[in-house]
Amino acid sequence: MGGYRNKEGYPDPTAGEALGAVAKEERQEARERNAAVTSLITMLKQIISLAGFELVGRIVLRDKETGKEYR
């Protein structure tokens, strides 16, 4: 069992638990954001189709908060 170790190399389970909780929360937020992007792209494609057009290129989105690009 690896566990978290501090800068000096000693086991630090309290810090490890805290960092693990933060990482878990960040992963959950990323999953939710990815689901929202997928839903948005699906809606955009449906709107394009309903308007009588066809999408011929990629849709690239940039998150205003994080700056991450979704392609």
* Mean pLDDT across residues: 92
- Taking pLDDT < 50 over at least 5 consecutive residues as the criterion, the unreliable ranges are none
Number of β-strand runs: 2
Radius of gyration, rounded? 20 Å
How many angstroms separate the termini? 38 Å
Q: Which structural class fits the helix and strand makeup?
A: mainly alpha
Spatial shape: rod-shaped
Instruction: List the helices and strands in order.
Output: HEE
Could you estimate the helical fraction of the residues in percent? 40-55%
What strand line-up does the widest sheet have? 1-2
Strand content: 5-15%
Largest sheet: 2 strands, antiparallel
**Tally of distinct domains:** 1
The helix count comes to: 1
Short description:
The chain is mainly α and 71 residues long. The chain is built from one helix and two strands. A two-stranded antiparallel ribbon has the order 1-2.
Describe this structure in words.
It is a single chain. The model has no long low-confidence stretch (mean pLDDT 92). 54% of the residues lie in helices and 6% in strands. It has one domain. It has one helix spanning 13-50, and strands at residues 61-62, 69-70. The chain is mostly helical and 71 residues long. The protein has a two-stranded antiparallel sheet with strand order 1-2. Strand 1 and strand 2 (69-70) form a beta hairpin.
